[in-house]
Amino acid sequence: MTMVNGVDTRGGQHCETTALGVLLRHEGLDLSEPMLFGLGSGLSFLYWDGKNLDFPFLGGRVKPFELTRKLATTLGLELRVRETGSARRAWENVAGPLEAGHPVGLQLDSYHLDYFTAKVHFGGHVVAMYGYDDHAAYLVDTEQQGGAVSTSLPSLAEARAARGPMTARHRSFTLTVPSGAPSPWTRLVPAITACADAFLDPPIANVGHRGIAKAGKLVRTWLERADDPRRDLPQAARLMEQAGTGGALFRNLYRDFLAEATGVLDSAHLRTGHRLYAEAALLWTETAALIARAGESGDADRLVQASAVLGELARIERDAMQSLSRLGS
Question: Which residues form the DUF4872 domain (predicted)?
Answer without folding.
Answer: 155-324
